[in-house]
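Hi C.,

You asked whether I'd gotten around to modeling the 249-residue construct. I have! Everything is below, sequence then structure, no commentary in between.
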Amino acid sequence: MRVDGLAIHGEFYLPDRKPYPGVIICHGVPAGPPNPADQGYAQIARGFQGLGFGVFLFNFRGVGRSQGNFHILGWAQDLKAIVAFAWSQEGLSRLAVMGSSGGAAAAVYVAAREPRIDSLVLLACPAHFDGLVRGRGVERFLEHCRAVGLIQDPHFPPDLEAWRQEFREVRPLRWIDQVSPRPLLLVHGRRDELIPVAHARALYKRAREPKELVIIPRAGHRLRREEQAIAIAREWLGRWGARRTGGLE
């Protein structure tokens, strides 16, 4: 798939039967360089596939084999394209998005504008990016993006202030109330070392019904590695999918 002229790579795990509910999985901002041995998201995708879901797993621009340089509105554009691709597949009955961290932030922004997203699961989602947009925070984060390969063009971004402004625009607390009336699940670790649990509570307070908040006492930031978090998401989405399809395997 090409988005803004960039090749965006993904894998699609389709179930044996139709119609089927679908879920798009959105990763977060990598903590380090790519690790080919890390099959975490693929294992999650196969787990959903085994329950009868069609799973759309992809890399945002700047990550893995996807081209381009990271900017948060670019990630939103990538997700919008994946939503359109998912709905072009025969047999899809409804579509959820499950996002982690930075991917969750992009998911809120897109879901607020995209009625074809029926349900939203947010893992360790930030309420805002105040630490990035204030002072030298954005410059430190830019250095991190270069270090882990999210940005490989030495001249990117051409305008640092515009890059910073994108984080203000995508700020999830600004858009979370527009997810309703579609169901929303927020999952957060009480011991999250990057995004304090207060972010989840602020998002939950701002969101409108139907909504649910689950705080996992001993979990940190990387909820994709927490079986309890993934099990909660699977069970919640399983109930959501069954309502439209008349039951899941």
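If it helps when you're writing up: The two ends are 30 Å apart (CA to CA).

Thanks,
B.
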